[in-house]
Amino acid sequence: MEQHDKSRRKFLYDLSLAGLSVPLISSALQCTDDKKTNPEIMIEKNKKAGKLGIALVGLGNYAGGQLAPALLQTGNCYLAGIVTGTPSKIPVWKEKYNIPDKNIYNYETFDSIKDNPDIDIIYIVLPNSMHAEYTIRAAKAGKHVICEKPMALTVEDCDKMIAACKQAGKSLSIGYRLHFEPYNLEMVRLGTNKIYGDVKKITSGFGFLIGDPTQWRLKKAMAGGGPMQDLGIYCVQGICYTTGHEPIAVSAQEGPKTIADKFSEVEQSLKWQFEMPGGIIAEGEASYGYELNFLKAEAEKGTFELSPAYNYGGLKGKIGETPMNFPNVNQQAKQMDGIVLSIKNNQTSIVPGELGKRDVKIIAAVYEAMRTGKKVII
Ligand code: NDP
User: Fold this and answer.
1) Same-domain check for residues 220 and 155
2) CATH of residue 54
3) N or C, fewer C-beta in 10 Å, the chain?
4) Is 333 inside any structural domain?
5) What is the position in ligand 1's atom list of the atom closest to the CA of 176?
6) For atom 46 of ligand 1, which residue has the closest CA?
């Protein structure tokens, strides 16, 4: 029953985000090859190739459905280890990804990763409320960290995470895959280079109908909130990277709760309006009750937009009525390779902890505006 529920949850979540699935032909080949090789030899081969070893922490839908397959397509890094609280997942992952026993941990043995030279980077893919603790423990273990979005539930936790990584002399990045995705990068180029003049208005929405009412995404203590934390964060990002500006103040309104039994702890949907530098009108909307997936900029001399804007694949864009034409890429592979390259070159990540903290601060202001009905200065 539990397994059935998990599959159903995964199906619903994948359906909402996946759009077109990206064929993983080379990963399938590599998988077949890898199975023939002793895991220890595989690790040595990857090390010799100059790849950094990543350990995924929390083997749920995103780690299993997206990140692990993507790590078979990356050139700068590979899946070297796993951390899981569910022993039944271990044989499946071992078999599929050729992971040696010595690189398999649970949440109790996690800190001993410090003694494992195969693991260079720890990628936190746990429920939101666990991001801060595991990022700090990873930094204390002397490892670089990639942490999923939203970075944490509070700005104070973000500060602690940034400080822990700084103290350890390790890099901290947030799993913002769209900073490595061509359609979204085109929005950045058109907006920030003012190709059609100043952006005057920008709107964005992300939503889907959420499934299983028992999942952590609907529990305030674990998720920190509802669709704003999970999906609205993409709209915040889209508005900021397309305009090149950050909001100064926000007003927000909660939508009605129309679906029974799911939203006793978190919002079902909400809308917000940012006050932006230069008087840009910026509006966002996030929902667990209906489908939304767009980012639209209206500039002085034309419009440019994406819809869908935020899926893992199958993105579409147009400038005026002319379609954009970019390849579908494996976003997660690009993201991890990009982050790892910055680590290898000793450069600052383009998706650093500070960016995650900025968004956590904005999200907190949106919630305060929603709760109080007043404009909140960010
Ligand atoms: P899942 O619920 O599918 O997976 C979370 C995993 O965390 C579980 O499978 C479990 O793994 C582990 N875990 C440890 N403690 C708990 C607990 N108390 N309750 C539930 N799970 C626990 O979530 P997702 O994979 O969908 O999301 C994980 C993170 O990734 C979130 O922060 C989410 O926002 C982010 N995410 C980012 C996406 C992106 O596009 N950047 C897309 C989807 C998610 P185990 O059994 O191995 O211990």
Assistant:
1) no
2) 3.40.50.720
3) N
4) no
5) 41
6) 86
Which residues have CB under 6 Å of ligand 1?
Answer: 58-63, 84-86, 89, 125-128, 148-149, 175, 177, 216, 230
60 in a structural domain: yes
The two tokens of residue 110 are 């996690």
pLDDT tens digits for 130-187?
Answer: 999 999 999 999 999 999 999 999 999 999 999 999 999 999 999 999 999 999 999 9
Q: Which domain holds residue 200?
A: 182-328+351-377
Instruction: Give the pLDDT mean for 248-270.
Output: 96
Rounded Cα distance, 331 and 372, in Å: 38
Please tell me the distance between residue 40's alpha carbon and the centre of ligand 1 in angstroms: 28
pTM: 0.93
Pick the last residue of a domain from 110, 145, 177. 177
What's the mean pLDDT in 208-227? 97
What element of type H or E holds 271? strand 269-275
What does the alpha-carbon distance between residue 203 and residue 238 come to, in Å, rounded to a whole number? 9
Q: Is 13 part of any domain?
A: yes
Which atom in ligand 1 lies closest to the alpha carbon of residue 6?
A: 3
Protein residue with its CA nearest to atom 40 in ligand 1: 177
